[in-house]
## 1
Amino acid sequence: MTHDRARCHGCGLTLPATRLVPRCPAARDDDDIDHVLRPQLGALPDVATIDAGELNPFIAYRELLLVTRLQADDDAARLETLRRLDRAIEQASGRGFRRTPLGRQPALARALALDVELWIKDETAGVGGSHKARHLMGLLLHQYMSRGTSASSPASRPRLAIASCGNAALAAATLAHAVRWPLSVFVPPDAAPDILAHLRRLGADIQLCPRERDLPGDPCVRAFAEAVDQGALPFTVQGPFNGLCTDGGQTLAYELVDQLAHEPGAPALDLLFVQVGGGALACSVYDGLRHALAAGLGNLRRLPRICVVQPERAHPLVRAYEQFAVDVGDRVGPAAQAPRDPRARADWLRSDAIRPITRALLGEISRARGRYMRAWRPAPTSLARGILDDETYDWYGVLTGMLETGGFPLLARESTLTRARDAGREHVETTIPVSYTGAAGLAGLLTAHERGLLRAGERAGVLFTGGGS
Ligand SMILES: [Zn+2]
């Protein structure tokens, strides 16, 4: 659609939607600029035309996603493609894309002595058992929506590539298998044997990447990047390589807003707790909520505070937030001190007096990546293995989301991660048992409660992002 585009929040390069690519063409490894292409929608749709009965989010919200808007001028052909793809995914994996369950959880809140109204969205019901497939659909749909019928020809399909040994790899292999695209998965030698066996059953080409003593960084990501340089498509949930991953991920936010609007009294969330590893989930949720607010989806009036949760043992994004708050304080000078309480400090950072400084600094730091985002050393360990990324790839978008919504960061102890997972498994009926990573948002809520950062009666949302160990 006219004015639809993607803009790199690092260098400012802007591409019209018709020339969309996954990675910023100006990206370099050594310029300290955070190159990530972020989707920007031009004219927003009349949300009254959204079919509330349509359960496939990529169909229901096709006017709110950059990649599906590419075929807006031929809705019949677009619908035919979307339905055909979903049938293939459902036939191959037993599950197509359907709205995932959202429910109030009073028993869980009582069991954890929480005096908030708790809502949980169950992403274990998603394709591949997690939220990851939503993100990957951004790139896949771009192939079908921009290449049209040529994407249907196996001979013209470029190889897909991903570096992961967890839910993202399973989601990638599930989708690639369903649509018969070749996929290479780059994994460490100690990847879980059951996951490797599952990936092989799905036809993925597995590439083992041992750590090389003299080279810094993740060897799987390095091998993946080499494959992309040689022409593979970055089928990954990392914004710097694949900006389209936040486009597909926005479906989660649209569903959340729509589902709440159809509950009695149309409740609005005060806080939303989101676990952060690479950051694409939290970034997508923020972008989706912003677009929903702008379009008037579900009569949304304000955004919830987006509170991010990382394990105490590995928290590169929380470190970046703390650095940012210190830098704002330095610019403000001794005249006004930042409050120590995290929630009060978040409000201070977006107060009328301080917001201009916060925004000015935000405008600068995407060109000073190294000051804020560095690989976590030593290599992190935690029960929440799915959010152990040594860098938060989409840190800038998540940081912006926190600062604009008054969200604050939380560090979850290992014991709290265990409590959250165990209580989640006991009190919430999910499609598959929630994992430590999947319940880490709840661990953040528990941490906020223990630290006195919640108000009685507030509405809090939590995403159960996936199952497994
Ligand atoms: Zn750029």
Note: The CA atoms of residues 155 and 439 lie 41 Å apart.
## 2
Amino acid sequence: MNRIALIGANGQLATDIIKVFNKDYFQITPLTHKDVEITDVNNTRKVLEEINPDIVINTAAYHKVDEVEDNPEKAFLVNSTAQKNLAEVCEKNNWTLVYISTDYVFGQDEKRKKPYKETDNTGPINVYGVSKLAGEKFTQYICSKYFIVRVCGLFGVAGSSGKGGNFVELMVRLGKEKGEVSVVDDQILTPTYTKNIAENLQELLKTDYYGLYHLTSEGQCSWWEFANEIFKLLKLKVKNNPVDSKFFKTRAKRPKFSVLEKYHLNKINLNLMRDWKENLRLYLIEKCYLK
Ligand SMILES: NC(=O)c1ccc[n+]([C@@H]2O[C@H](COP(=O)([O-])OP(=O)(O)OC[C@H]3O[C@@H](n4cnc5c(N)ncnc54)[C@H](OP(=O)(O)O)[C@@H]3O)[C@@H](O)[C@H]2O)c1
């Protein structure tokens, strides 16, 4: 039996980790923000040493991307320094550390059209991306046993607590309320169902193939295409206007292209990710929007 301490347990991804992970193989201790404050190193060490897990999964983040631009200190505290402290505690106790990272560690190459491999140079274009990249770097140089897992465009039944929901729910709500939406079509990503990530992550954690992994659905689309597919599957009659990024004046810049290739997962023959459209359909069924 592998014991897991799961940080950020109320969150969107963690909720599915708890649901999906096989209880005969993994014994999870869920840690909500009330149970542990990862920016407080003494509290974190005490809580974790009481559990004495084999694996620590950190899903916690400060990831309101626009708000983060004006709060870099908090971003570095939560996304980087706290991860450094966690890495040190894990290394001292010989525990494996899992850090959930992001496609936003990329973005400087505006003309990019080819999915990024784990071995490609990073280049974030906002404070959030820089702070998560620093979290990755601390993990890599401090821990002997780690998995860094970069994910992208998450949607899951719990909705992101840090972001107040997810894109699918926003489109369903706006589509029903207004019958018309404007969505950017010059940012290309891979929408990913947190349940599918959890399914694949548990298989990865059964191995000792430590390292850096991209873990996203198959395929890619713009946010506009993503919205179109939602309306199509739900048979909602919504006018969906494609607009470019300049239409919405946001505080943080976003990558024009942040599709990730699952090079390392494929290399170890452990890619269980479905196409994003199929993942969307399964999500809509789980939410009872579809039969
Ligand atoms: N959502 C996306 O589209 C997306 C895309 C790429 C990467 N990611 C990464 O994926 C991970 C999971 O995302 P998610 O959408 O599942 O996030 P989420 O729903 O916001 O969950 C994060 C959890 O962490 C907790 N938390 C925040 N700060 C904490 C702290 N200082 N100490 C302890 N707990 C804290 C939050 O609790 P409270 O809400 O109670 O504060 C929340 O339950 C994050 O690391 C994020 O950077 C997300």
Note: Residues 2-152+194-216+259-273 form a domain with the Rossmann fold fold (CATH 3.40.50.720).
